[in-house]
Amino acid sequence: MSTNLPIGLRIKDFLYHMGVKAFAGSLLDEIPVSNPRWFEIANANLFSKELAVRDQILKAVMSKGLIDKPSVRPKIIPIVVRFLKEGTVEQRRSAVDFILSRPDIFTADNDLLVGQLNVSLRDRDHHVANTAEILVKKFHGEHR
């Protein structure tokens, strides 16, 4: 639980911490993404049964300018890679497109990312597989 939140959020956070998981979406909306508590809640709900909460997490980490902040970047990259690994088809598509759109952030020196892209080459979804192939070739210097 975070003590640097307003009282209303602290109450919701306390109830969430006590097991009322229905507050996850509300907390993710109201707590700033740069707050460490946001990442704790996001990681705990990455693959909950609530598809809306999962989509909310993915949209938040892909929001414009967030990944440009060096303080949150190391926390965001594993979340995007995890969506590429275990997300729904739409979430995997969004994740791979986001990776393709940010070549300055997602580089070949991230073993977790490159490994997951190699696995994604065999994805059932053609868009994910083809985009992963472009990225793997790009990382190995074979593409443009």
What is the chain-wise order of helices and strands?
A: HHHHHHHH
**Sheet having the most strands:** none
Gap from first CA to last CA: 47 Å
Rg, alpha carbons? 16 Å
Q: Into which percentage range does the β-strand content fall?
A: under 5%
| CATH-defined topology of the domain at 67-144 | Leucine-rich Repeat Variant
General shape: elongated
- Tell me the structural class: mainly alpha
Figure out the total of helices. 8
Strand element count: 0
- Helix percentage range: 55-70%
CATH class descriptor of the domain at 67-144: Mainly Alpha
Quaternary state, please?
single chain
- Average of pLDDT: 90
Spans of 5+ residues with little confidence (pLDDT < 50)?
none
Could you explain the architecture of this structure?
The model has no long low-confidence stretch (mean pLDDT 90). It contains 8 helices and no strands. With 144 residues, it is mainly alpha-helical. It has a domain at 67-144: Leucine-rich Repeat Variant (Alpha Horseshoe). The N and C termini lie far apart (47 Å).
